[in-house]
Task: structure prediction
Amino acid sequence: MAEQDRLAERYGGGGSLTRVFPIAAVVVVVALVGWLAWAMWDRADPKVTSHLEAWDVISVHEATAVVIVDLPADTTGASCKLRAYAEDHVTVGETSFVPVDGRQEVSIRTEREATSVEKVGCTADGQGDVR
Result:
């Protein structure tokens, strides 16, 4: 009896599990790669994008921010959010606004003096995250 035959007789030779495992692994890898490609494509082209150009503290109870928004004409349900923080990093003001395409100045009412303003982001109908 050959060595390979003795090993197959002793440990079981080439059962269905040795054929099923590689096929299952390939299916799982293909599914993960497909999901990753979809997620990258979906996030690569947001409906609305924005960035904070400048901000200024006007008074103890007001700050302003200049936001530039790229808003395609067919976009619906767009909204943006800004947040103002005090020196101790506590949120002292927040505002949401309906953006227009281009540059806009937005006022934020604050409960005490702000020391910084953050653009939380903008989103539109059908867009899952803020940009």
